[in-house]
Amino acid sequence: MLKTLILAAGLGKRMKSKYPKVVHPILGKPMIKWVVEIAQNFGKVGIVLGYKAEMVKQVLPEDIEIFIQKEQLGTGHAVMCAKDFISENDDLLILYGDVPFISKDTLNKLIEEHKNKKNEVTILSAILDNPSGYGRILRIENGKIRIVEDKDANKEIKKINEINTGIYIFNGNFIKKNLDNLNNKNAQGEYYLTDIISFADNISTIVVDDIFEVTGINNRIQLSEIEKEMRKRINRKLMLEGVRIIDPENVYIDPDVQIGRDTIVYPFTFIEGKTVIGEDCEIGPMTRIKDSTIGNNVKVIRSEVEKAIIEDNVSVGPFSRLREGTHLKTKVKIGNFVETKKTIVGENSKAQHLTYLGDTTIGKNVNIGAGTITCNYDGKNKHPTFIDDNSFIGSNSSLVAPVKIGKNSIVGAGSVITDDVPDNSLALGRARQIIKENWVKLKREANKNATNKE
Ligand code: UD1
Ligand code: CA
pLDDT digit string (tens) for 154-213? Predict the structure, then answer.
């Protein structure tokens, strides 16, 4: 069996943040979660936390064993703090909390090498043009390896460009036995995990193909660069799967988003969280969709959509805002400047202009006229509105909730509706129109006469 231990106790000084480095999100997901999700593919996961551990815990799944390293005395010391996690019969994979993009494929290769060679240690190394800052892989007699930290390296060793990525697999028995032999007699006065390496007789390395996978994040410039690269990769993957992205440089899609074939994503669009979008949709430009489920052949133009469900053949926007709990059934049309919240809109119904629908349930084939407002809030509580099938709400009406409009009914334009409207009825809730014929003309003449007399 394999267990994974993630080292994430460091505070990440160079982030200049009041939050621990590993909780900073990359494409909407905390850095540490990227690592944890990869690790969970292989079995049990433990993590070493230190700086503001409580804050990190909050973003972690529950089934992870947490160990605390009070003082950051080095990577070897971090592993010592998780001694109870290590068992003699399980191999131990070490990952870093600030190296978020290590892939499943690479780790599988490392695991395979470790098993095939029956190694005590298998190291993931990388060949870098500029290896400065990293521990160097130094091959010594009888196939043994020593890792020399940059700060402890002499001129000759500094020339070696094969570096230690910090990702390794240890045989459980081997690491348990050797952990206590570590000391901190080195340039940094730290307990180096790397010092254990030289005790191994059976050891080999695998060179990572793609440097990006082992790139660590130390400051906000690296954070934005690595995020940009990841975004590029997500967009490329989607395009290879059949999604049309116009100008991928300006489209921001989170890692867990799914998009169907032949959907077009226009520029300046953000698709976030656990959003699922079907086939043949048109999304954007200038649209933000978060944690929503969208069917096939849907258009969402210049709009905001959050925690909403949109069924097939719906169109939304431009300039609308669908909030939490919105459910648009098939063939619904939501036009410009419409806001919905906790609202179900039935098949083939329309709200095309300047409307607020809150806590509202609308049936089939309903037309909501321009400027209709559901008055769902009385200052203390929220109340529901029901509008049944085939009804017509005239423009600029206020529906004062709680209120029900029956089937096949009509609300006259400009009405304020405070009482339920039965089926098949016309409701008018407005002042009756008065005409005073020639009133303006007579008034003018009267005024004229008055000035002439002066
Ligand atoms: C380490 C390796 C180095 C390798 C490099 C790759 C050692 C001694 N050196 O160096 O060979 O090339 O990674 O990036 O291991 N951490 C703790 N507790 C600590 C110290 C570190 O949890 O006391 C965690 C950090 O949060 C981080 C990881 O371990 O996630 C690596 O620590 P870092 O200080 O970046 O190691 P390096 O000195 O860069
Ligand atoms: Ca580092």
Answer: 999 999 999 999 999 999 999 999 999 999 999 999 999 999 999 999 999 999 999 999
69 within ligand 1 shell (Cβ under 6 A): yes
> Could you give all domains of the chain from N- to C-terminal order, each with its CATH number?
2-214 (3.90.550.10), 220-427 (2.160.10.10)
Pocket lining: 124 vs ligand 1, CB cutoff 6 Å:
no
* Whether 117 contacts 50, CB under 8 Å: no
- Mutational pocket test of ligand 1: of 68, 70, 75, the residue with most ligand atoms within 8 Å of the beta carbon: 75
Q: Which atom of ligand 1 is least distant from the CA of 77?
A: 23
The residue whose CA has the least distance to atom 36 of ligand 1 is 75
Ligand 1 center–CA 74 separation, angstroms: 7
Which residues neighbour 18 within 8 Å (Cβ) at sequence distance 6 or greater? Answer: none
Spatial contact of 415 and 397, defined as CB atoms under 8 Å apart: yes
Note whether 174 and 219 are within 8 A (CB): no
Residue 101, CA atoms < 13 Å, CB-side half-sphere:
24
CA distances from 89 to 94, 200, 243, 287, 447 (A): 16, 17, 46, 52, 106
Q: Structure pTM?
A: 0.91
